[in-house]
Design goal:
The chain is α/β, with parallel strands linked by helices and about 300 residues long. Helix 1 packs parallel to helix 6 and helix 2 runs parallel beside helix 3.
Length: about 300
């Protein structure tokens, strides 16, 4: 069976944690991750959704987001007491995008992308950049998220808010209650796994670049993501079923949320998003694929896929 993603397996020795919830691995991961993306400060979370929620909480704004997006982003916007509207951007998938620009700073959602010195190249000191460590993401873990910035006061707030509204301190008894906060902090298990995968990230991306270049050449595409490799075919459901029978697992990333009754804003027409909703699928794309696997995937996709007009 050729899997859609690779999720690394680790033997975890909890005796090295010190503290199972907020031990030294959490601080080490925050420091090393911030250094990797070129930011001064970082605050980790139990999930990227929690990070988005706190970053947007009670801002009383309308957030414009792509319709083709994971529903958890919409949930965070709604539950943080903001409104939303959809746009027709479908090229963000596997990349990063500006979730909201407040004028004096912006929030960049980079849940599907992690690059060396990325914050330094894309953001200003006051900006916030949010990452995800969902198991299938570039740096996978047992879920988790991170906000990085060069603005210490913003990061300080997130650290306090995510740790029950308590002041900073190495030990829990050294902390004081500052305000009613949330239990949203990353635990030691999440940080340990994420640290192992951070070490492997550059080698992983090198292999993914090789696979992506092969896919692009053979399928006539120009995909650039290190997270997903998506194609658009007229016979998506039939092709996915056929590939499954051939031992090739595929997926759909993502559906058009403006068509879903829970998130519908009335009559909204977004042709690019609606086309993706009908035709787009992800084929296996991970560092453990062999050259034989990649060739088999291309052969089966080319033989049985009915590509949309804009693709070969």
């Amino acid at each position: 069976m050729i899997s859609l993603f690779n999720i690394n397996n680790y033997n975890v020795d909890t005796s090295t944690f010190g503290n199972h919830l907020v031990g030294h691995y959490v601080a080490e991961f925050e420091r090393k991750f911030a250094e990797y993306v070129g930011a001064k400060h970082a605050c980790s979370f139990s999930s990227a959704t929690s990070a988005i929620f706190l970053a947007l909480r009670k801002k009383n704004i309308q957030v414009e987001i792509p319709s083709v997006i994971p529903p958890v982003v919409l949930n965070a916007i709604i539950n943080s007491e903001n409104s939303y509207r959809f746009n027709d951007d479908v090229k963000w998938v596997g990349w990063s995008y500006i979730l909201h620009n407040f004028g004096d700073y912006k929030i960049i959602d980079s849940a599907q992308r992690v690059d060396k010195d990325q914050f330094a190249h894309e953001a200003n000191d006051e900006d916030l950049m949010i990452f995800s460590f969902y198991p299938t993401k570039p740096i996978g873990s047992i879920d988790g998220g991170m906000i990085v910035s060069n603005d210490w006061e913003k990061i300080r707030y997130f650290k306090e808010a995510a740790y029950n509204g308590m002041s900073l301190g190495e030990n829990s008894w050294e902390r004081d209650i500052v305000f009613p906060g949330w239990k949203m902090y990353m635990n030691s298990f999440q940080a340990f796994v994420a640290l192992q995968n951070l070490v492997k990230l550059d080698a992983k991306k090198h292999r993914l670049a090789e696979i992506r270049a092969f896919y692009n050449a053979k399928l006539g595409l120009e995909n650039r993501s290190h997270h997903l490799y998506r194609i658009s075919v007229q016979n998506r459901d039939d092709l996915m079923l056929h590939l499954k029978r051939e031992g090739i697992t595929c997926g759909v990333h993502y559906r058009a949320m403006h068509k879903h009754p829970v998130y519908s804003l009335g009559k909204v027409v977004l042709p690019n998003s609606e086309l993706c909703d009908r035709t787009t699928m992800s084929i296996p794309f991970h560092e453990k694929l062999s050259d034989t696997d990649v060739q088999k995937i291309v052969n089966r996709v080319r033989a049985h896929g009915k590509f949309c007009a804009s693709e070969t």
